Structure formats: structure tokens, C-alpha cells
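Same chain as my last thread, 261 residues:
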Amino acid sequence: MAQKDKDKISYEIEDTLLVKYCHFLYNLVGKKLLSNKKFKIFFENNIYNKKYEGILKKANMKLIPEEYFISIYITLSALFSIVILSIFFFIFINSAFLVFLFYLGILAVTGVGIFMYNYPVVIAKTRGDEIDAAIPYVLPYMKILAKELNLSKIIEIIDEFLIYKEIHEEFKKIKYYSNFLGYDIHSSIREAMLSCPSKQLSDIMNDLVTISNSGGDIYKYLERKLSNLNEEIDAIEKKNLDTLMIYSQIYVVLLLYILGL
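reply #2:
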């Protein structure tokens, strides 16, 4: 197997149950619905949200917004239909039960809608937070490599040793663009960082591209960046500790007041 094929396979994202579910609905019903011109106009004007293209990429979900939103529409329509049919089925039962069933159904439809609409946003945010948390542990290794190696070699080597899942996914994207699509290392980094959920990592990698293009010293940049990052972490930890001390003092005062001391 060619190296490019191996890189392509290694970059493939594992589908979650939700992604598989959306693929299934889109292929089973979605394509047919969207082939109707009137429905497609309604869908594009009232349901489709183009900004989710970037959000889905940042969440590492192999879906296009069209595919995702038609799945949401089908799911909610099916749930609402089940609610209406259930009401008709139990029409001769106590009216209080019908009211309960109706509100339960509306609650279920609303809950599923909110979950599906916000799921990619939450996943992208979670991935970004995990990447940000891993950066202070990755930069020292990159700094060591930068003493002797250029940016391309740094990316190639660091990717093999990363144990942090989400940041590893972003480096795999860079290698995918470079090894499979044939981009140069600078273009690969810029393309990969467009879908990176961490602004911090994206800024660092784009800075490295600028420095590498201009012939600057990557080692000195990483040394300075790591120093600034450690100072920021220390400041945050001190702030959290001070906040904890304040809450502790308030708790002690309240406790003494309650005990009447």
C-alpha cells in the first residue's frame, strides 16, 4: 500500500452513532426530500444553517450541514408524528392523560431538537478546551526539536509521539494535507488550522508558518511562547487559589455565625 493511502486511512475519523444515524437518514429519506424543489427552498430558507460547516469540522464530524439539518428535520418530524398518533390512539382514555402525553411529547421533541442542534457546538468547544490544556505539555517537545529541525520535520516527528488525542487529530490533519493532498507544509498547516477548534493552537501554528517563511528562529519563538504561557498559567492558578481562600473565609464566618460563636 502506498504511503499516501496509509496517511489517508490514518486520518479517517471514526464515526459516532449520531454521525452514522445522520448518514442513514440522509441516504434513506433526506436525498429524496431535497430533490423536491419546493421543499429544498423551504429547507434552505428555514432550516439549513451554513455556519455549521465550520462547526462540524471543528467537532470532527464527517457531515455537511445539509446532511445534518435534514436529519434533524426528519427526526423531529417523526417524533412529532408519533406524539399526534399516540394522542389519537388514546383519544378515549382520560383527558388528563392525553394532556400529559401531549406535553411529554412536546418536551421530548424540544429536548431532542436542542440536543441535536447544540451537540456539534459542545463537541467543538470540548475539543478546543482539551487542545488548550495539552498545549503546555506539547510546546516543550516542539522547542527541543526546533533546535535542530525545520518546521516540516518538527510536525512529522511530534505527531508520532503525541499522546493527547484531540491535539493529535489536528496534527494528523496537517500530515493529511501534506502527504496525501500534496500541499507544502506551510499551506498544510494553514488549511488544517481553519478547522481547528482551538484558537490558541491555531495562532501558534500560524505564527510558526510566518516565522518559517521569513527565515526566523522557531526555537526562540517557542521558548518565548512557552515562557509567556507558563506565566499565564501561574497567574490563573494564583487567581483560583485567591478565590478559593475568599470562599473558605466566607464559609468559616457563616459557620461561626450559624453556631453562634
